[in-house]
Design goal:
alpha+beta, Cyclophilin, 5 helices, elongated
């Protein structure tokens, strides 16, 4: 009996770089099962990559940390790359970021190390054909062994074939789009994060709060998709550790040494350290693009302000047609 091979129909990974993961908007209603939400660290850049291609919100895309990705297309498709300012070429020819671009069979795509920013997002027309089962998501969580192309938490690796649909000649001939310059962040700008004060703020003396909101911190090398540890003026906390409770995205917990940690997408689901408040979702996008050593300052905002910004974001990116 002759052994048959499946025809190639997707993007073949030649070099996966430092860390490349399949991500979408993250899992819903799974924390009570002890599972993290996951999802794209910079939802602004991720959502724009999909919108440029007319993809629905929550369409899976690649999150590429610190560049280094090389792949060959086995299909005729359209792609968009957003996020970090990376040198981006197709067949050795420089290409534009934050723009939709056709990719033909045999084309070789390469992303080098970023000049600014940390994470890039690569979306394809129609999205990658991968399971979105757990919490309605394909979000890859390596620590948990969940999500990803094979639902086992594996990061994208050399030799992987990421399945995606082949577009028709008519679809490829449609107008390309690019993101308006006003919507492209400058990752070299000083980082000022919006913070919603939390229910445990009374555990922090007035002097500690004044210090937190008026002095500068730096992002520690101890940062990943779970959390970002800060180096700076220690904060005094009143009282003992709390009974462990659920932890929200962006929560700022302060450990025994007085240093704050901002908890991110792949965070643990419960914890007992006091929490000063939470960085807003829209500010977390900017944080996701900063390297260790970057300076960061904080600004208090109301819950209402943060809700309005998130509502505007979701309403815009749930529209069907891309913006020219």
């Amino acid at each position: 009996m002759t052994k048959t091979t499946k025809p190639k129909n997707g993007l073949e990974i030649i070099n996966a770089g430092f860390l490349t993961l399949l991500q979408d908007a993250g899992r819903n209603q799974v924390m009570h099962q002890g599972l993290a939400n996951g999802g794209a660290m910079d939802r602004h850049a991720w959502a724009w990559a999909n919108r440029l291609l007319g993809n629905n919100y929550n369409t899976p895309a690649l999150e590429i940390t610190f560049g280094g990705l090389q792949l060959i297309s086995q299909v005729a498709t359209r792609i968009a790359i957003t996020g970090a300012e990376v040198p981006f070429t197709i067949n050795g020819q420089p290409q534009a970021l934050w723009s939709s671009i056709n990719l033909m069979p045999g084309d070789k795509l390469q992303l080098d190390a970023p000049k600014a920013g940390l994470r890039s997002y690569l979306a394809v027309g129609g999205g990658f054909s991968v399971p979105q089962n757990l919490g309605g998501s394909c979000a890859t969580l390596v620590r948990e062994g969940t999500g990803g192309q094979n639902e086992n938490g594996q990061k994208v690796a050399e030799g992987d074939l990421l399945p995606c649909q082949s577009l028709t000649t008519k679809e490829l001939a449609q107008q390309s789009f690019k993101v308006p310059a006003a919507n492209i962040p400058d990752y070299k700008q000083p980082l000022l994060l919006d913070v919603i004060l939390g229910a445990q703020v009374d555990r922090f003396p007035a002097a500690s709060l004044a210090r937190f909101f008026n002095e500068t911190y730096r992002l520690s090398p101890q940062m990943d998709r779970m959390g970002a540890r800060l180096d700076g003026p220690p904060l005094k906390v009143i009282g003992e550790r709390l009974i462990s409770e659920g932890i929200s995205l962006g929560a700022i917990q302060v450990t025994a040494d007085g240093q704050p940690i901002i908890l991110l997408n792949d965070r643990q689901t419960i914890g007992g350290y006091p929490k000063l408040g939470a960085v807003t979702p829209r500010s977390l996008d900017a944080l996701a693009q900063r390297l260790p050593g970057s300076e960061v300052r904080f600004k208090a905002v109301s819950l209402h302000q943060a809700q309005l910004r998130e509502k505007e974001f979701l309403q815009f990116f749930n529209k069907k047609s891309p913006t020219k």
